[in-house]
Amino acid sequence: MKIRILSIFSLLLIYINCVSAQVSESASKVWQDNKIAMKINFLVPKGTKGDGARIDFNYAKFNADSIVAFAAKSGIRTIISPAKIGNMYLFNTSTDNNSCYHKYNHRDIIKELSMACSKRKIQFGIYFPISEKHDNNGYPTSEKLNGHIKKQITELITKYGKISEINFDMGTRSPEESKELYTLIHKLQQDCMVSNDAGNGYYDFCNILKYHFQKDFLECDWRYDSSLSFHTSYFETDNAQSDAKRIIQKIAEAVSYGGGFILNMHLDKNCQIYAYDKEIINNIGDWLKKNSFAIYGTSRTPFFDKFDWGTVTRKDNMLYFILSGKYPKDGKIKMYMPEYELERADGKLATCIQKNGLIDIAIPASAYKGKTINVLTLKFKQDILDQQPEAIRAITLKQHNAIPLYSISGFDFGSTYRSTVKYSWYFEQLMLKQLELLYTEQEKGKKIEIVLDGKTYNVTLNNGKPSSLTATDGIVWGKQYICGPDEKMFHAPHTIMTDIKNPPVENSAWKEITIGKHTFDAKPKDTYYVMQNIESPREQNIIIDAGAGNGIEIYLNGKSIMKHLNPYGCKFRTEKVLLPLKKGNNQIVMRIYNRFEKNISYILCPSKEQTIYKQDFTLQETSKKKNHKLTVRQTGLPSENDDTELSNLRIRLRRIAL
Question: Which domain does 516 fall in, by range?
């Protein structure tokens, strides 16, 4: 009997350890609704060399109750505190005596903040910087998480009550380490949200910086990380009221695209809030007291259009027009919304009329004058849904007429970029019965998910009939050139403007090189560009072989058509890329990215095999709808934030099954 009980207990432990880490929907919803977080920063004075370990902060004067009370008064719903400044731990850890607890009469800053936040029902998060040794290439020296670090994280997550989120600042992690870190945190506290700093796509939310924010929607939960202000000895600033107004504009912009915002609050050597920061946050708090309904608990704008007059958030049947932009030239905002019946509008700011589906709002100039940002509220009789884009009329759905859906991915901070996780189309087609899937050898064997008009279909690309592309005689490959190196992050704009006289790297030039595979010495974070011109007598598709090391991006005629990191640890990988050439001259630019290696390899040449596979997928029932929505993504990837790598896939629409 005892043996049986032990066996059942052992099986239970195995089951618990095998449960996949996942935040509950309710915890994720709370994180999304709270929108604004305030991060505590211990500001290193200007001119100080080294890190914060050399600064003698007077932690004895730290007052958690005062800081949390100030945040609560300002309408802030989440506070994030560092758990370590330089080499000083702000919590009682058994792993190191260099902590406030051991040096400042048992002061545990994290405990004090956690208790103060709990008392005022404010979410409490932690920022934990970690430093570890790596090999000469920047790779982690181990595939397992350091036991020392695991113990510190366990202490932070288990000793201080509910932790709403944990953010990291650390070097590169192997995918195994990132997964172990992510899983450990969720085993200790299931609903503790993990930031993308864990690496390799293992995260619950993403802190994005200015260059990642392209004013469009992301498929992941995210928050805009922007510095609030610095002490006036760092920068010249305007008055606090105008600075606060600019920050409110950024908050509204981030929230309207489905994200949140981090305010950075700075403490001086005596652990007191800088007066200028306090004044700015007070002004933001005053605005939130009047307008928090347009920020907290709202969803992203339902519109694809961008507006010069401001931005939009929504909640159920309410639209909030945040007048954060420029006053309309004709003094009017016009929105065509025939599906919705306007019930009422905020009469204090504007006169609003709805006629034949057109909502005509007359805005007085006074709404844009003054030191605040006004909000116009519109209430409808129906809940507001996402606006659909204009339906395209196309026989074939392909990358070039798709709406790409993005997330954030990367090995680490330096390689973080906007990954394409899905392709979406909204198209017009009467009597839809069959899809013909066209793909190359590159996609063969991949498993994809197709969502058509709300129905999900899982397909393996393994049953296609081969067909050769018949390239027209007269295609001419010009000379090939290389330019670099340039030390850059993997993130880059979606367009490139370059030619032989205007290289993409400053103080560099294009150098002619033979077509074929090349390998040469490189440093981590080196980026090179390869340029190739192709003359085509007509519009046509061709397949090329493109190869690179840690990351690759292909631009065709100035626009990015394919971009992704290769699997972690991959030193070289060749793949098939389908190029839709236009008639005349075509410019290919391949950007090759080296994150870790001591040398870099690449190849860019015509593929010997010009083979396309055609695979039919017949719908169970003929769809008689006029307009349809279809999204496609690759399944079975290590992370749902990884690039879907389906840029070659095309989908031909058929009214009848062949």
Answer: 476-609
